[in-house]
Amino acid sequence: MIQRAVLRDPLFLTGLSLRVALILVATPLSHEVWFIPFLQNLGAGGFIDPWAAHLAVGGTPMAFPYGPVMLAILAPGVLLGTAIDHLAPGLGAARLGLALTVLALDLAMLRTILRLAPGRRRACVGLYWLSPLVPYICYWHGQLDVVPVLLLLNGLIILAARRMVLAGALLALAVSAKLSMAIGVPFFAIYLISDKRLRPLAPRYWAAFLVIITLLQAPQLLSPAAVEMVFGTPEAAKLYSLAVSFGQGLEVYVVPVAYLLILYATWRVKRISFELLTALLGIGFVLILVLTPASPGWFMWALPFLVLYQLRSGPSGIALVAAFSAMFVGFHLMTSTGARLILTDFDLGQPLASLVVLPQRAIPLVLSLLVATGLILSIQLVREGVLRNDYFRLSRRPLLIGIAGDSGSGKDTLAEVMIGLFGQRSVAHVSGDDYHLWDRHKPLWQVMTHLNPRANNLSQFNRDVRDLANGRAIRSRHYDHATGRMTKPRLVPGSDVVIASGLHALYSPEICECYNLKIFLDMDEMLRRHLKIQRDTTRRGQPVEKVVRSIESRYPDCRRYIHPQAERADIVFSLQPLHPITDDGFVPFNEKLPLKLKVALRPGMHYENVVRILIALCGMHVDVLVNEATNATEVTVEGEVDAEDIAMAVRELVPQMDELLDFAPRWQGGNLGIMQLFVITGAVDALRRR
Amino acid sequence: MAIQIRRPRPLTDLPSAVLFDTDNTLYPYEPAHVAAMDATRSKAARVLGISAQQFDDTFREARHQVKTRLGKTASSHSRLLYFQRMLELIGLRTQVLMALDLEQTYWRVFLSHATLFDNVKDFLDDLRIAGTSTAIITDLTVQIQFRKIVYFGLDQYFDHVVTSEEAGVDKPKEEPFKLALEKLGPITGSIWMIGDDPVCDIQGARDVVGAITFQKKHEGVRILDGDLGPDIVFEDYKELQVLLKGLSDLNGTPSARVEKSWPLGLPALRAAVESVPASLEKLLR
What we know:
The structure holds 2 protein chains of 2 kinds.
Chain A: H1 4-8, H2 10-25, E1 26-28, H3 29-43, H4 50-56, H5 68-87, H6 93-116, H7 121-129, H8 133-141, H9 146-160, H10 164-177, H11 185-194, H12 202-221, H13 224-231, E2 243-247, E3 250-253, H14 254-268, H15 274-291, H16 299-313, H17 315-335, E4 339-341, H18 352-355, H19 362-387, H20 390-395, E5 399-405, H21 411-422, E6 427-431, H22 458-469, E7 474-476, E8 479-480, E9 485-486, E10 490-492, E11 497-502, H23 509-514, E12 517-523, H24 525-538, H25 544-562, E13 571-577, E14 595-601, H26 608-616, E15 621-626, E16 633-638, H27 643-653, H28 670-689
Parallel strand pairs in A: 5-11, 5-12, 6-11, 12-13
Antiparallel strand pairs in A: 1-4, 2-3, 7-10, 8-9, 13-14, 14-16, 15-16
Helix pairs in contact in A: 2-6, 2-7, 3-4, 3-5, 4-13, 5-6, 5-10, 6-9, 7-16, 9-10, 10-12, 14-15, 15-16, 15-19, 16-17, 17-19, 21-28, 24-25, 27-28
Chain B: E1 4-5, E2 17-20, H1 29-48, H2 52-70, H3 79-90, H4 96-112, H5 120-130, E3 133-138, H6 142-151, E4 160-163, H7 164-167, H8 174-184, E5 191-195, H9 198-209, E6 212-216, E7 232-234, H10 237-251, H11 267-284
């Protein structure tokens, strides 16, 4: 149902009054001559093959170029009205039955648009319900395209909710209602292929689509009359009207070429968000509108998408759509049929051009202006709907995150929790451990630590990261910490997100240029020792003395090779014990240490909103300091935070991130959750800048 | 609806100070509260296995008991106390972690569903430019009220904040108002009070500080008639911006809005043209 606030809105009531007034005073020629006679004939015995029954009584093949879905939706109102007309002739109830059905569908369209643009109630009512186009198309010219578009849009909304079977069925219903909705099908196909998260769900979508479309369309193919009226409608020929001479009597049709180019461009987007899908569908429909002698009803296909465009664009978009709409209506008032005014002798059913003498160039001139504004609108749709779309900018190239830090600082853990957010399918993870030159048992480790860059194949690491950044697959070995040996090489395919973690992930300046976000993990030295001993003894099965020796021997290399990477990082996370650990202050390994997280942000990184949300939404204690030596902002965060807080904080700060994350992102509580929050917001900032 | 002046009061000067209530005055309280209660109810169902009906009944009873015990004080609004008592009424004794979790769930969802009324920040900006002091006088505990102010990004807009936790009692008692006046320092001109509650805000501010009272009208707000009612009723902060600009022009003080120079004799055209961006903005909202 439409919200009560909408129903009470004066804008809504104005639009409704206009519609009711039009229904009461005018009857569109198309209703009177085509649709109502066809639907009335249904009651007179045409239920099995209404198209044949219609042609048999001498009806025009143009009367109802629609499938059984349209029939099922429109017939009840007309048949009920016809029955009333038999009982009380002169009421015009059949006419009202069709018009009120259209009004109900029009209201459903408003509700659908409100669902597509939540929180923009008044703007939606203004831009759709008060648009003079809708009354012109539905109640003056009398087209029924509101039905298929309504089904298509609801299919879109249901698809966003990932109810695949119902979404597939609704798309099939839209195409069955009007074949031209098939224009949208390839866009849906590309969307479902491009989003890796949706791929496993796509078979259910297509199965539902195919079953419904077969059930609804196959019987029609058995009826020659339906084939003639529905599949052979002269309307379809309009797609080939605009042609360019190719010489030697050959022609190239412009619309199929333009349509294929849009599909190709859609394919090249690689990963499409829901918002991008609606923008691209809109562009497809608008271009067909511009490049064909479109019927007025065709404007309905593009109208909801144009409302969404205007909401995004603001006054300039509204002005452009208004100009385009004015040209469209002006052109069609001159060339298309209209309505007969009831209770008067005034018949405006015929096009203006047949009623009055227009200046010779009037029609071509208006058409030229219509095409020109339409093309400008298409360019703006591409610019504002696609090129400036945050998600488009985010997803053109993989998101590259580099994580460096000393052994035991939590690189793998941070990489894992980030993979938990993006989803395993969407992440290619490269670990620096896989690029150690020798297995752990090799004698060279006695003279050199892993921390020494020369003990690692860094050039291969850099090459692999660069290849993944370009979307190419790599082959990489894997270092097994349990055995200390490298496995055989395995294939790592390119993906939407690349996480490169390792001791030297930020070592070479040129690889740092590839990353969108560079993270360094630091830690209070005493805490690091405590945690490393805990991890290596319990998870990796090494004796304590060996771990301590290893820490001591590695410390000089750590200072020399690892710590300097912090200067290249955008974010330095540093875990600190809430109470300092002293040399003589033994902390049992099984005791949970209270920690705080210090986050140093490169100058220029935004932190204000994150801090605001951490304090306000998560109830954390946050200190902000500017380091006078480095100008870095140091944010220290203390307190308990759970995964739900972090999930809501990210939704609040970067709502557009939803599309990049897994369907069920694994948010973390505590310090890991805070790291997730800073990484996600930092990544979005970085991607916006590229 | 335009601004309604219900009780003729001298409204010729810019205010020296404006006092604001917070909940349901700067943002609509009910939608945020409903969303927060829904989330808390679902969590309680998930974790404790209690039905929605049982949750609602015990929460209502817990709230009633806390309010009865504490009277008109800041703590009497504490969701943490309500949830603590609710868990006790269910028979779980004091479950510290669970009570904290339910409280955090409540406020997290509450805040994420709370949005400022339109034009609040613009109006506060106009007051700042006009040199008017501003203070919040609000019931409830300081911790959550500060979190709200930070969440809405209002921390830079207000000069002072007074909570009933700080004052010791809720409005309409005089303590919160007097504390606010103390913080504001000597005031020579008029004081405006903007609130939604006919008793706590409107009567309280008029009786204690003799403020010109403005009641924010929207769904669910009760407006009293006659002597008990507010001086002025408004629906949109835009209306207060216009009023402030009018008073500013009247007194020859610098206006918050930069004036454009227009040819003489075209006031209607000027008004029409100037209203276009605002109309578009309103339409797009």
